[in-house]
Write a structure and sequence with these properties.
- The protein has 312 residues and is α/β, with parallel strands linked by helices.
- It is built from ten helices and 13 strands.
- The protein starts with 15 loop residues before the first strand and ends with a strand.
Length: 312
């Protein structure tokens, strides 16, 4: 459970900065860490201060940090082993931190690290979509397209000229269309549950942002070399992955985890700055109501991102 406690202000070590937080966004991985699902890797120890996606201002810099100084507005992805995002102060690794452009709000900036990098890297690196639009058109399916990752995935895919079929709940169909999706399925209808493209397209890649869908649901709708990129992999994902590899199947399922990367984070922030993508924020909560934000992320039906703010 979450408890509000007083703790000492942390100290920036080599390669780190002490930052005063302005906003923190929550991700499903945060409550999974809290529940102990990722032990023994995450967190390093209990109790811990959860959350890793933050925006704020540099207070001071530790030894070896270059390019940042006190007063800089920044966005950072904290180390998940230690967390730290649901606090007034945190230490941020310089290598996963970027300066936040003034055109990007703290709430939007804090929403970018895990969700934005997952969307970017899965589409660009795993699905092979060329974001400058020079590649061949890729047929993509994006599940849970109105969620934290899905909202960015739709927009990034369209920047690369992909044809996007998306799934979401009925209440978010118009939103997902506005984000750029070419076809949108209500996942609660028979057609949506089957994941069948209304135009009959076969998917070159699936950015799978939902959960609890078996390989057999995807397989009939994949192109001959299609792949399912599973951003919430579980035991069955890995079992299917190894089975497909061993049998040399041309259709694959790929377990995917984003890599912390300051350059990619800066790329995403620049897209926001230029108005090429936007952040959909479901709700904002002050730190003293962090429990309500936590309950919302655990419910799993947020539209876009859930953000905790640190107002004076």
């Amino acid at each position: 459970m979450l408890n509000h406690v007083e703790v000492p202000i942390p100290t920036a070590k080599k390669g780190e900065m002490l930052m005063k937080l302005e906003a923190t966004s929550l991700n499903p991985v945060d409550w999974k860490i809290q529940k102990g699902y990722l032990r023994p890797i995450f967190p390093a120890k209990f109790p811990c201060i959860p959350a890793s996606d933050v925006a704020g201002e540099v207070v001071n810099v530790g030894p070896g940090v270059q390019g940042f100084q006190p007063g800089d507005k920044i966005v950072s992805m904290l180390n998940n082993r230690n967390g730290g995002g649901l606090a007034e102060y945190a230490v941020a690794p310089a290598k996963t931190t970027m300066k936040r452009p003034p055109e990007v709000s703290a709430e939007s900036g804090a929403s970018l690290p895990i969700a934005g990098l997952t969307a970017l890297q899965s589409i660009r690196d795993s699905a092979g979509v060329k974001l400058d639009g020079t590649g061949k058109e890729v047929n993509l399916l994006i599940t849970a397209a109105s969620g934290g990752v899905g909202q960015y995935a739709v927009q990034i895919a369209k920047l690369g000229g992909a044809h996007v079929t998306a799934t979401c709940g009925a209440r978010n169909i118009n939103l997902v269309k506005d984000l750029g999706a070419d076809e949108v399925l209500d996942y609660k209808t028979p057609e949506g549950a089957a994941l069948k493209s209304p135009s009959g397209r076969k998917y070159d890649a699936v950015i799978h942002c939902a959960s609890h869908l078996p390989w057999s649901t995807f397989q009939p709708h994949l192109s001959p070399n299609g792949k399912v990129i599973d951003i919430t992999p579980n035991f069955m994902t890995f079992t299917t992955f190894f089975t497909k590899k061993l049998t040399l199947c041309s259709q694959q399922i790929v377990p995917f985890l984003a890599s912390p990367n300051g350059n990619d984070l800066a790329y995403m922030a620049n897209l926001v700055k230029e108005g090429k993508i936007k952040t959909i924020i479901d709700s904002k909560y002050p730190l003293h109501k962090a429990e309500d934000a936590w309950a919302k992320i655990m419910d799993g039906h947020a539209t876009g991102k859930i953000v905790v703010t640190f107002e004076e």
